[in-house]
């Protein structure tokens, strides 16, 4: 979908309080028309539907979303062991007044929900004469409302559930049970499934919600909902989640979606646009004038490792831009992979940098980099020779290598903590070599929010919870067959798992191997590790990421902005989330 800066509703309560600023909503209105007038025609109504998509772009492809959904988990820590956004990445001082991504997300998502509510409640007065077109537009809004509410309820818990447009600041709020949020989301998504078209029907606006988007998000929503129940009710929701995911898998040809034959093809930049495995994307255009902002998709920077200036290397489009690198992989995350049989490791990480400039070792540089004198005079040839190796393995005698070697023992202590975090293996899934220049920050790749592989993992998790471990292994083996190295030896058999392998730990780690970086990891841990009132969440994170020491069970929810609480006349009744 082209991401024009469409007219948005002016300050119609993006927030529950008077503290919401209107500055973020200033948009060009060529006609000077009021919101009521814009909503009253099909053409104007579609403009506001377009506006309802906008605020997902503050999360997907941006640092805020990555820190909210990936950091503070088992698989990432701050590069250089710094404290950037440490409230989320390290649970250090996360309070209602600290944690800028949390505070921004609260503001932006409520703004988007209000636009969805306005459209859903106004659509009968918008003048649509084509019922199918009307239902499509309502389907978009209901999909988006469910999409935003999933982020709200999973992040903040049972806060206020709004289904009516807010036109003036509200000074009181009432909490709703989590189950009520899910009832609304499921109902909205079922409507969207019934009324949204295939992706191809949208033509060039391919990032609009489509039938496969709604079906996929319904499966994710049902799986999340099941964990809020016990006994027979939980089994019902796990069954529904399994069936919803299976519906996508079984109808993938009709839904115009398919797995790539090779996991690496999924992340080949040449396959990014209209990616055949994607169920839902946030698109970015190379024409910055029609994007939401000038940054586009910045994911390629977040996990970037340092290479520029090392012997034989200069900054390049191929190797990436380092200025906003934020997160590095934990040793546990690297160890989740058996790189000898699983090609997802090589597709996800970069260990070797080939020189992109000629270089000759001098005595001075050999001493600086603690190389053996035998390397003096050796030449590193651009495009031919290795310039840098950063590896999860231990490399003996690396002083003798005529290139920089940073091995496991250079990055991690034996207990898994990080030594300095200055250098680390590069996570390269989101590389963007098609930017305008090597030092240009905006990225133009689409953000793949949800893809077909997730449906196999949802079906597997649901089957495991239904005590069908063999069926769970079957779904997982589809992905592991794809991920198996095929040369020089075909490792497909070695990659297969059986019912005996399926447990919580395996499913969590398999999701990391497949979906790392895709805005899901924190939600996965929150969902699956609720045992002992959240102590399982704490224990797992500390065991796998020992640099995180301050995580507590209450961190499975984030705090509500203090400004919102201050402006509520019934703040004591509404209550801050526990622990904050």
UniProtKB/TrEMBL annotation:
Residues 100-222 form the SusD-like N-terminal domain. Residues 1-24 form the signal peptide. The keyword Signal applies. This is RagB/SusD family nutrient uptake outer membrane protein. The keyword Magnesium does not apply. PROSITE patterns: PROKAR_LIPOPROTEIN (PS51257). It is found in: Cell outer membrane. Belongs to the SusD family. Keywords: Cell outer membrane, Membrane, Signal. It holds the Pfam family SusD_RagB. Residues 422-580 form the RagB/SusD domain. Its main location: membrane. It comes from Pedobacter alpinus. SUPFAM superfamilies: TPR-like.
């Amino acid at each position: 979908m082209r991401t024009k800066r469409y007219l948005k509703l002016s300050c119609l309560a993006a927030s529950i309080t008077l503290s919401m600023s209107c500055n973020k909503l200033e948009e060009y209105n060529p006609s000077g028309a009021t919101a009521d007038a814009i909503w009253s025609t099909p053409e104007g109504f579609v403009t506001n539907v377009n506006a309802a998509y906008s605020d997902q772009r503050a999360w997907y492809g941006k640092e805020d979303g990555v820190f909210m959904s990936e950091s503070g988990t088992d698989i990432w820590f701050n590069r250089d062991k710094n404290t950037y956004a440490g409230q989320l990445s390290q649970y250090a001082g996360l309070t209602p007044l600290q944690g800028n991504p949390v505070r921004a997300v609260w503001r932006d998502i409520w703004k988007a929900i209000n636009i969805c509510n306005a459209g859903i409640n106004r659509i009968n007065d918008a003048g649509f004469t084509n019922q199918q077109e009307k239902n499509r537009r309502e389907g978009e809004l209901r999909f988006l409302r469910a999409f935003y509410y999933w982020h709200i309820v999973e992040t903040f818990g049972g806060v206020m559930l709004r289904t009516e447009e807010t036109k003036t600041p509200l000074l009181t709020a009432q909490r709703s049970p989590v189950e009520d949020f899910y009832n609304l989301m499921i109902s909205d998504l079922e409507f969207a499934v019934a009324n949204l078209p295939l992706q191809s029907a949208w033509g060039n606006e391919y990032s609009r919600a489509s039938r496969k988007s709604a079906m996929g998000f319904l499966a994710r929503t049902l799986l999340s909902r099941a964990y809020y129940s016990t006994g027979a009710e939980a089994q019902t929701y796990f069954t529904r989640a399994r069936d919803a995911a299976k519906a996508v898998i079984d109808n993938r040809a009709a839904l115009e979606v398919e797995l790539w034959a090779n996991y690496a093809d999924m992340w080949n930049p040449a396959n990014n646009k209209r990616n055949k495995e994607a169920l839902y994307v946030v698109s970015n255009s190379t024409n910055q004038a029609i994007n939401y902002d000038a940054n586009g998709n910045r994911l390629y920077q977040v996990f970037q490792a340092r290479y520029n200036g090392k012997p034989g290397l200069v900054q390049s489009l191929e190797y990436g831009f380092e200025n906003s690198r934020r997160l590095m992989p934990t040793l546990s995350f690297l160890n989740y992979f058996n790189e000898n049989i699983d090609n997802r490791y090589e597709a996800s990480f970069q260990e070797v940098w080939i020189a992109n400039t000629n270089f000759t070792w001098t005595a001075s540089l050999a001493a600086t980099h603690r190389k053996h004198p035998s390397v003096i005079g050796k030449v590193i040839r651009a495009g031919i020779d290795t310039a840098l190796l950063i590896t999860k393995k231990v490399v003996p005698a690396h002083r003798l290598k005529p290139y920089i070697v940073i091995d496991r023992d250079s990055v991690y202590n034996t207990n898994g903590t990080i030594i300095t975090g200055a250098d680390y293996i590069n996570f390269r899934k989101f590389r963007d070599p098609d930017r305008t220049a090597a030092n240009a920050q905006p990225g133009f790749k689409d953000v793949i929010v949800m893809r077909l592989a997730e449906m196999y993992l949802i079906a597997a998790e649901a089957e495991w919870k239904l005590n069908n471990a063999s069926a769970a292994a079957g779904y997982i083996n589809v992905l592991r067959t794809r991920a198996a190295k095929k040369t020089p030896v075909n490792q497909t058999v070695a990659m297969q798992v059986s019912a005996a392998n399926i447990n919580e730990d395996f499913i969590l780690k398999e999701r990391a191997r497949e979906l790392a970086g895709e805005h899901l990891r924190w939600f996965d841990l929150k969902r699956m590790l609720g045992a002992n009132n959240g102590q399982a969440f704490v224990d797992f994170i500390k065991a796998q990421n020992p640099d995180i020491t301050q995580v507590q069970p209450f961190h499975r929810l984030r705090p509500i902005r203090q400004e919102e609480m201050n402006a509520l006349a019934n703040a004591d009744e509404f209550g801050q989330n526990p622990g904050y």
